[in-house]
Write a structure and sequence with these properties.
- The structure holds five protein chains of five kinds.
- In chain A, 79% of the residues lie in helices and 0% in strands.
- By secondary structure, chain A is mostly helical.
- Chain A has a single domain, classed as Helix Hairpins, CATH 1.10.287.
- In chain D, strands 1-2 form a two-stranded antiparallel sheet.
- In chain D, α1 runs antiparallel to α4 and α18 runs antiparallel to α19.
- By secondary structure, chain E is an all-alpha fold.
- In chain E, α1 runs antiparallel to α2 and α2 packs antiparallel against α3.
- Chain E starts with a helix and ends in an 18-residue tail after the last helix.
- Chains in contact: A-C, A-D, A-E, B-C, B-D, C-D, C-E, D-E.
């Protein structure tokens, strides 16, 4: 197996694992972490591609994704905090007032 | 004599503005104080509409012969090929005349639901305006708009002042109508696009104008079948034809008397009118093939309505089903390529409009007096309210199509006209006539005759004042049409010729012997 | 200097919103803040209309043409009206710090504009994120209310997932083309389709198309009404702009598999949305589901996109009308107070405030596609004719049956307002701002229906540009 | 040629109808006088027109162009020829007498105005019927008289039985009217016109295909049978006795019920197109008159007796129609009008005198208390019994004779049989009429109270009619048939018959009278033996052949059931049920779709991934 | 595939599974750190040095610290006992499998056939040092760079808005700190 493609394979795998985690876990923070994992998977793919194409646009993209991820984490954790304040739990099963 | 203002639009605009006028005091928040003035205003407006219509008719008749051919055509949405096109020929004229008369009667009728303020008149006027529009529009999209719009005022009035189940009833009414017209809507669009695709339009855009669409033979039989069925469904629900009448019992049970009268008299007629005006020219082949089935449906509807009416326990439901039965005649009449039958059908539609409105109003006053519509709580009223009894007798007699009443003219022409085409179904329809006599007389008997069955034998409660004038006017109209129908017939038949018959004659693919 | 011109609107908005942060302490007076926001949005709109024509060039990351300008103006207009309409209800919403609130709203508008103007995927993604992140916070803005933060959480998590999908799509695009520009690609290989699917998943989520709609009802219900009002319009506009742009400029629609996807989404959206709305007692959820269904209608134009541009134009037309309807409806809700949600809250509204009741009725009639407010009706005429002309009969029939079905629930609220007795008779007072916004929406909804010609022509032009 | 008098003939009673009610509301006394005057006036016009009527010429008057449009020509036109002249004379003449009579009869009824205006309305309708120039116009009158009879039968509407009797009459007539309409439809399409003068032209009738001719003929007879109470539609006529007696006299004896015969005579061209039609008519008529006669024997209500005798006499007339002797039938119509009206009015006087007692078993011996009535009733009885030289004799005799000359392929075999049967019926007639006379006037009074003779205003017209039924036949016998040569086919070999003929001809009647006298006066005991012997006949007769029951079982019950089923199953369950079901289903599905939104984030994500997977799986070209 | 790459990739995948697998959020957080670091290693191997560094700094540093802080703040026990149904887990994994296959198959198919030579000559061009990236950022991606500042700003302000409330009470509505169940 060619190294580059193996990177891509790994990216796909991580992406999927992150998704599975999102479906299986209930703790909001863990969910958030899974999201981060998915983003990382994509980043990996970006970098691999940039290597394939021999330009840096992919890496630049990854840089921006990191920035965004940082902002996301700030907001996400704030949201989780405020949820915790109101529901006294960060398990998504407990924050399920809105339905149907 | 020329008419200074845009004549046809004014028929639509005047009532609409009148409706706004009714609401003006209502917005000033003192709701019932101005009730009387509003009433006078509303009557005035609808009267004005009637006068305008008469003036137009006179002018047109003076200018060019008996057949009216007034038009108003303006571009509306050129890029979609939608035009604002109104036309008044004999066909539209009789129906708009009916509209004007019925609206006037219903508006002027004194008995209206308690708590009904200015909104009552506003909605009725809106109803008049929209129904007018439906009868005048010749652009299919415009027609569709009015076709949908005319539902709303009726719906509103019913949901505002109806019985206990009024909301469910009106929802049902709405859904039925929408479900019916949805596919028609699509078919209209298909026609418009097809015209463009065939390159039949001037500016390469869509075209929805009936004459444009009708003059070109651009549909293959399959298309005609599908589109025709879609149209038919919409009108079948509107008329209503069995078995698409699911909305009717609830509506007529819940609606206030005036609204019931308005609905029964006018809304269904739009279906009849549209089949002649739009379906025959657009889908001649389909109509020619569907004719027998349509006739069957009509005839069976006559019998069905009569049978169900016989089983009813209260006056209003009986009226509802009787109107199904009577409209069956119209359907039978428009099923075949026969000027006689079709003219009869139009005439029958008009006369049924008059009669059924009169019946709903009269019966309404009886019900209000007794506080009940059950036959078991009625009876022997002829002694208590002789005048009402008299009018009810006149209208019942008209309903069973006694000669020298308008409905006889219609039914006679329909039967004689369609005998040649569908003898078997005409015979079935005749059975309906006998049953009609049975339930009508039974209803009258159980209401007016027999020992005076009265929970609290109050005197009075008889029709009086202006209402007498209204009923008398309607009765006069019914009888006058029964004795001197010639003018109206002479107006209808050429229009029918042009709109329906000739399209079939022109369509060579239809091989049918027809009887003029 | 001229190099900055293309970014003027975005700059104006962002810099202006920065003004909030510095002035945050002494700008706590609702009236002033909202006025300031309005001023900024107006300025942005003005810049778009007035300034951009001077910059026809394609600078880095941005593309300026009639298409993007139209959508940008639409977004600004939507934001403007929703801000006016809901300004006075913020106090009752107990949204603490107004300056942050407006800052975020303006920033998300800014992000929306970026989405609309973006000419490469990276910019597009950043725009999406700016808009979304701001909105996540705004959904949670009603900190004292449990539902609000719950909505924020849901929106946040799901939104992140969707942007992950979007991003993966972008990565694949980069993998195939070696660049990030939104430029025509001539291959339709599996990888291209793959990236298209992934991007569509991302955008379908933002738009709220079934089956990616599940967040919509929860968020619309949980978020402050003012925010819902805003996002129900602006987000849809931006996301649709992005979708159109990607699908037409990058993926060279129509390719049959892509059309298959969109067809599926559109049908599912309108059907699921309408069915789910049938039983709703909560007006917000009802409107949320209805927005799903409406999104399905809007998508038709892209699905049936044949050689004719006019079908896309019909989508744009319908979208425009829809913005007016939904903003109006939610504005009425916000006027009724932060917790007005159930249908019962609308009982007898006509007695308490005829203006509100009648305008709400008009909006619902428009949504149902009934006269007299014929924006919806005309939009449907336009859309379905397009569908038929491209021989998408099945789609057209499903759509029209759906719109008939929809009447069943669109009837409910007007019925409650007009035909039922009010629990209380004390009148609802409508602020000048809201009155203005509502009047504007009513005018739009009715006017577009009565005299659609100019808008139709505009949409035709826009579509022509978009299809290229 | 146009003549306005013709219009006046119809319009005056119509005017009377309105005026008498309007004025009657104020002054009830005047109502009767006005309406009587109206009818008398119209009688005067009829006479004057009749005088002016020479040769084959006719008068006509067009009221409106009515149903004329495009190329359809159906004006509202009436015309006056010899045939209609006869009917008009009877209607207006006898009618005015009966009006006069009712002035007395209804003297103490408070709703007289209504009564009289109805009566006038009826006269007008009847006149339109007989004057109509085209079938639709005749149909106007046809339905009009039906309506009036409905109104008049149910005149005392507070009694629901009376009201429903009226309804029964109307509905049964309606069934007949179906025939009328069908006939019109057929004729219009085949002959292109409904004008009766046109419909007599052979070349026009030739256009009628044979089976259409049959349909038209049968349909017309159905109409006639409905109106003139032939099998199976005659049960309404006895019930119609619920109405005031003058009504029975005018409508259900003299005029309306004979409209059927008039129609047959009018349309004889169509009737005779298919020879099967007259045969059917003949047999029906025979059965009807036989059954009615048998029933009449065992009736105790005086009016019922007269009613059934009317049915039987109508059957006689149709016998004549069946063999094509239309003028003979009309002759019997005229004489029957005289004596039957007389009978009814005398019966009316009796009822009036006995304080509205109608049961003959509670009468008797009234000869002393009301001699004039007794006299007229007796005369009329003799007339109907067919005793020469009373009026009935001539017409009946003519009918029996014409039966002998039946020239119908379907009848040759049976002509003698029918002749005998008819004679038997005549005997029977004499029998039950005599019975009624005996029960009413002879013997001793069995009721309570003091019967008294009717006032002069009632007796006078009765006497006039009595006189007519005495001499009427003798006078008319010679002129009548020759007079009707024009419009109607000549009667095959009709002999006036000399004295001998009179004697022989009267034999059947005399037999009947003798038998009745024997059984009811001389030896009442024998009566009971006979009753025991003929118990079946007795049952059938007193049970009215159970026709009502049969009809109820065969027709009415099924229809009721059908209507119940239609309303409950077809309407409620199927038509309406389907709609509701669809609504319910979509609501349920909607509920399910809502449940998709569980509120759990992880579920949502799962959905997202599942959908994404689905999209990828379905739409990716390579898997 | 070099041994180095293999090891790092293996660690990365293992730690990823760990993130999903551990019941205790804290341990999943730590395994996430490991995961991020391994990713950084992969970056380095791919020649994206700048990214590798910033990955360590931004992710493993800033973000994860924040996460851990919050976790500490809420001092949560491991996820409450209720396990997800086996059916659902199976379903989830199945779906994940489908996605994995459908995504990876075409990718691998497409890029399997890239000659090593091209990668060699690309290696220099895709050398993501600070200088190279910086040049791109400040020339071609100027706009996006500025916009990303906006993103961060939103993050800050949003966090402030959500976290700060007028009447601050950090104790939840019911139950003590930490929402002990």
């Amino acid at each position: 197996m060619d190294p580059i493609t193996s990177y891509l394979g790994i990216a796909c795998l991580l992406f999927t694992i992150g998704g599975i985690g999102l479906c299986l876990r209930r703790n909001a923070i863990v969910l958030f972490m899974c999201v981060e994992m998915m983003l990382n998977a994509v980043n990996l793919a970006f970098v691999a591609f940039s290597k394939i194409h021999g330009n840096l646009d992919g890496q630049v993209a990854v840089f921006f994704v990191m920035v965004i991820a940082a902002a996301e984490s700030a907001i996400g954790l704030a949201i989780i905090l405020s949820v915790f304040r109101s529901v006294a739990s960060i398990e998504t099963t407990d924050a399920a007032e809105l339905k149907w | 004599m020329t008419i200074p203002w845009p004549p046809l639009s004014s028929l639509i605009v005047v009532p609409a503005l009148g409706a706004l006028g009714c609401l003006a005091p209502w917005f000033s928040a003192k709701i019932d104080t101005k009730a009387r003035f509003v009433r006078v205003w509303a009557i005035g407006v609808s009267l004005l509409t009637l006068v305008i219509l008469a003036a137009i008719a006179r002018a047109a008749t003076l200018s060019h012969g008996a057949v009216l051919g007034l038009e108003e055509a303006h571009q509306w949405i050129p890029s979609l090929g939608i035009t604002y096109h109104l036309e008044l020929d004999g066909l539209s004229f009789v129906f708009s005349l009916l509209t004007a008369v019925i609206s006037l009667a219903v508006i002027a009728w004194s008995a209206k639901p308690a708590s009904a303020g200015a909104g009552w008149y506003a909605l009725l006027l809106l109803g008049e305006s929209t129904v007018m529009g439906a009868f005048l529009a010749t652009d299919l999209v415009l027609f569709y708009i009015f076709f949908e719009a005319m539902l709303l005022p009726v719906l509103g009035a019913m949901a505002l002042w109806g019985g206990a189940q009024r909301l469910n009833a009106s929802l049902k009414f709405l859904i039925y109508t929408m479900a019916g017209s949805a596919l028609m809507f699509l078919s209209i669009l298909y026609l418009g696009w097809n015209a463009q695709a065939m390159g039949h339009t001037l500016n390469g855009n869509f075209a929805f104008e009936i004459t444009t669409l009708a003059n070109m033979k651009m549909l293959n039989p399959i298309e005609e079948l599908v589109l025709g069925l879609a149209f038919l469904l919409a009108f079948a629900i509107k008329i209503p034809m069995v078995p698409f009448h699911g909305w009717l019992p609830d509506t007529y049970r819940e609606a206030p008397h005036g609204v019931a009268a308005f609905t029964a008299a006018l809304l269904g007629k739009v279906g009849i009118y549209a089949i002649i005006r739009f379906m025959w020219p657009l889908f001649p082949t389909f109509m020619a093939q569907a004719g027998p089935y349509l006739a069957a449906a009509g005839a069976l509807a006559i019998v069905f309505g009569a049978l169900v009416a016989m089983a009813q326990k209260d006056l209003r439901s009986l009226l509802a089903y009787s109107s199904i039965s009577h409209l069956g005649f119209c359907v039978l009449g428009i099923a075949g390529v026969s000027t006689m039958a079709m003219t009869g059908a139009v005439f029958q539609a008009v006369s049924h409009g008059l009669i059924t409105a009169a019946l709903f109003l009269t019966v309404g006053s009886v019900i209000d007096r007794q506080g009940s519509r059950e036959f078991d709580r009625l009876g022997g009223l002829a002694r208590a309210i002789p005048l009402t009894a008299f009018f009810l007798m006149v209208f019942s007699v008209a309903a069973v199509a006694l000669p020298l009443t308008s409905s006889f003219v219609g039914e006679f022409l329909i039967i004689v006209g369609s005998w040649k085409l569908f003898p078997q179904w005409t015979t079935v329809a005749l059975l309906g006539v006998v049953l009609g006599a049975v339930y009508t007389l039974t209803a009258y008997l159980r209401t007016m005759f027999g020992p005076l069955h009265d929970t609290d034998p109050r005197t009075g409660g008889d029709v009086r004042g202006f209402d007498v004038v209204i009923l008398a006017g309607l009765a006069a109209a019914i009888i006058a049409l029964g004795i001197f129908p010639a003018d109206l017939l002479g107006m209808i038949s050429p229009a029918v010729e042009v709109s329906a018959i000739q399209s079939v004659v022109a369509d060579s693919s239809v091989a049918l012997g027809f009887s003029r | 200097m001229n190099a900055f011109v293309p970014f003027a609107p975005v700059l104006a908005l962002s810099i202006g919103s920065l003004g909030y942060l510095v002035s945050g302490q002494f700008l706590e007076r609702a009236r002033l803040t909202s006025l300031f926001a309005l001023g900024l949005i107006g300025a942005a709109a003005y810049l778009i209309v007035g300034l951009l024509p001077m910059a026809p060039t394609v600078p880095h990351g941005f593309i300026i043409n009639d298409f993007s300008k139209f959508f940008a103006v639409l977004a600004c207009l939507g934001a403007f009206v929703s801000v006016i309409g809901t300004a006075s209800s913020l106090a009752e919403e107990k949204i603490g710090m107004l300056s942050e609130y407006y800052f975020l709203m303006l920033t998300s508008l800014c992000g929306a504009l970026v989405m609309i103007f973006a000419s490469d995927f990276l910019t597009l993604f950043i725009g999406i994120e700016v808009a979304s992140l701001a909105l996540y916070c705004l959904c949670g803005a009603r900190v004292t209310k449990e539902a609000s933060s719950e909505a924020a959480l849901k929106y946040f998590l799901l939104g992140c997932v969707s942007s992950a999908f979007m991003l993966f799509g972008i990565a694949l695009w980069y993998g195939v083309t070696g660049g990030l520009a939104i430029a025509p690609i001539n291959s339709a290989g599996p990888l291209v389709i793959l990236s298209f699917v992934l991007m569509v998943v991302g955008l379908a989520f933002k738009i709220g198309l079934a089956p990616f709609h599940l967040w919509v009802p929860d968020v619309y219900q949980g978020a402050p009404t003012s925010v819902t009002t805003y996002m129900s319009c602006v987000v849809k506009v931006a996301a649709f702009a992005a979708l159109f742009k990607i699908a037409l400029n990058a993926f060279q629609l129509p390719t049959e598999s892509a059309i298959g996807i969109l067809w599926f989404l559109s049908v599912l959206a309108m059907t699921v949305g309408n069915l789910a709305a049938l039983q709703q007692r909560s007006v917000k959820r009802m409107l949320a589901y209805s927005s799903v269904a409406q999104a399905g209608y809007i998508l038709i134009g892209l699905v049936v996109l044949g050689d004719t541009t006019s079908v896309l134009a019909s989508s744009v037309f319908y979208l425009t009308g829809y913005c007016a309807m939904t903003i109006g409806a939610f504005t009425v809700l916000s006027v009724l107070g932060p917790d007005a949600d159930s249908v019962d809250d609308f009982k007898g509204l006509v007695k308490r405030s005829p203006f509100l009741a009648i305008s709400m009725t008009l909006f619902f009639l428009a949504l149902a596609g009934l006269p007299p407010s014929m924006a919806g009706l005309m939009g449907k005429v336009y859309l379905f004719t397009g569908a038929l002309s491209s021989k998408f009969y099945g789609l057209a029939i499903i759509a029209v049956l759906n719109s008939a079905l929809a009447c069943a629930y669109y009837f409910r609220v007007p019925a409650a307002m007009l035909f039922q007795a009010p629990p209380t008779t004390e009148p609802v007072k409508v602020s000048v701002f809201s009155t203005f916004a509502l009047t504007f929406c009513v005018a739009a909804v009715v006017g577009i229906g009565i005299y659609p010609e100019p808008l139709v022509e505009m949409c035709e032009a826009v579509a022509a540009v978009a299809v290229g | 040629m146009e003549d306005t008098r013709l219009a006046l003939i119809v319009l005056v009673p119509l005017l009377g109808c309105i005026v008498s009610y309007a004025i009657g509301r104020a002054a009830p006394k005047l109502a009767g006088i006005i309406s009587t005057a109206a009818v008398a006036t119209s009688f005067y016009f009829v006479v004057s027109l009749w005088q002016a009527l020479q040769g084959g010429q006719t008068f006509s008057f067009t009221l409106s162009s009515w149903l004329s449009f495009a190329d359809v020509i159906l004006p509202l036109e009436i015309h006056f020829d010899k045939l209609s002249a006869v009917m008009c004379l009877v209607v207006t003449g006898v009618g005015s007498l009966i009006h006069l009579y009712s002035v007395g009869y209804m003297a103490e009824d408070e709703s007289r105005p209504r009564f009289f205006s109805y009566l006038n309305l009826f006269i007008a309708a009847m006149l339109i019927l007989v004057l109509g120039k085209s079938l639709p116009v005749i149909f106007i009158g046809w339905e009009g008289v039906g309506l009036c009879s409905y109104l008049l039968i149910g005149f005392w509407y507070t009694n629901p039985d009376f009201a429903s009797a009226g309804r029964k009459a109307f509905v049964m007539n309606r069934i007949g009217d179906l025939g009328f309409i069908v006939a019109m439809a057929v004729l219009y399409h085949s002959c292109g016109s409904l004008d009766i003068t046109v419909l007599h032209r052979p070349e026009v009738l030739a256009r009628l295909p044979s089976e259409m001719g049959f349909i038209a003929g049968i349909a017309l007879f159905l109409a006639a049978a409905g109106k003139s109470a032939q099998l199976p539609l005659f049960t309404w006529l006895p019930d119609a006795m619920a109405g005031p007696t003058p009504v029975s006299a005018l409508i259900h004896a003299a005029t309306m019920v004979t409209a059927g015969i008039y129609l047959m005579a009018r349309m004889f061209g169509v009737i005779e197109l298919a020879p099967l039609v007259p045969a059917i008519i003949l047999w029906t008529a025979f059965a009807t008159s036989a059954i009615a006669a048998i029933i009449a024997i065992s009736q105790n209500d005086i009016k019922k007796v007269l009613a059934y005798s009317t049915v039987s006499q109508l059957g006689f007339m149709f016998l004549a129609v069946g063999v094509g002797a239309y003028s003979v039938a009309l002759f019997h119509v005229v004489t029957h009008a005289f004596f039957k009206a007389c009978l009814f009015m005398s019966a009316g006087s009796v009822i009036h005198g006995c304080h509205h007692e109608q049961d003959m078993r509670r009468m008797g011996g009234l000869a002393k208390s009301m001699p004039l009535t007794c006299l007229s009733y007796g005369a009329a009885t003799l007339a109907i019994a067919g005793i020469a030289p009373f009026a009935g004799y001539f017409s009946k005799h003519a009918i029996l004779e014409s039966l002998a000359h039946a020239h119908n392929p379907y009848l040759h075999a049976y002509s003698e049989l029918i002749g005998l049967g008819a004679t038997a019926i005549a005997t029977c007639t004499a029998f039950y009429m005599t019975r009624s006379f005996i029960l009413t006037f002879l013997g001793s009074y069995r009721g309570e109270g003091h019967p008294h003779e009717a006032p002069i205003v009632m007796t006078a017209p009765v006497l006039v009619l009595a006189g007519l039924s005495v001499v009427g036949g003798l006078v008319l016998n010679h002129g009548f048939f020759t007079y009707l040569q024009g419009p109607l086919p000549a009667v095959a070999g009709h002999s006036g018959g000399g004295i001998l003929g009179y004697v022989l001809g009267s034999v059947p009647g005399l037999l009947g009278i003798a038998a009745a006298y024997a059984l009811f006066v001389i030896a009442p005991a024998v009566k009971d033996q006979i009753r025991k012997v003929l118990w079946i006949g007795e049952k059938l007769s007193s049970g009215k052949f159970y026709l009502d029951e049969v009809l109820g079982l065969v027709v009415i019950a099924p229809i009721r059931a059908l209507s119940g089923v239609t309303s409950r199953v077809l309407d409620q369950s199927v038509s309406i049920g389907t709609g509701n079901a669809i609504g319910g289903i979509s609501r349920a599905v909607g509920e399910l779709t809502c449940r998709m939104t569980t509120g759990q984030v992880s579920t949502y994500v799962l959905w997202m991934f599942a959908s994404a997977a689905f999209l990828l799986y379905c739409f990716l070209p390579v898997r | 595939m070099s041994f180095m790459e293999f090891v790092i990739a293996a660690i990365g995948i293992a730690s990823a599974i760990g993130v999903v697998g551990f019941r205790n959020p804290l341990s999943s957080a730590f395994s996430l750190i490991v995961h991020l670091l391994s990713i950084a290693g992969l970056y380095a191997l791919l020649g994206a040095h700048f990214l590798a560094v910033s990955q360590v700094v931004v992710y493993a540093g800033a973000i994860m610290v924040l996460v851990l802080f919050v976790l500490m703040l809420l001092n949560l026990k491991s996820e409450s006992g209720r396990r997800l149904g086996i059916v659902r887990s199976a379903l989830t994994i199945g779906i994940g499998l489908v996605i994995f296959l459908t995504i990876s198959a075409p990718m691998l198919a497409q890029f399997d056939s890239i000659p090593q030579s091209t990668l060699e000559q690309n290696a220099k061009a895709s050398e993501g040092g600070v200088k190279a990236i910086g040049e791109l950022l400040y020339s071609q991606y100027m706009v996006q760079f500025e916009l990303s500042s906006l993103v961060l700003l939103v993050g800050v302000v949003g966090a402030v808005m959500l976290a700060k409330r007028k009447n601050v009470q950090l104790t939840p509505r019911e139950g003590g700190m930490g929402g002990v169940k």
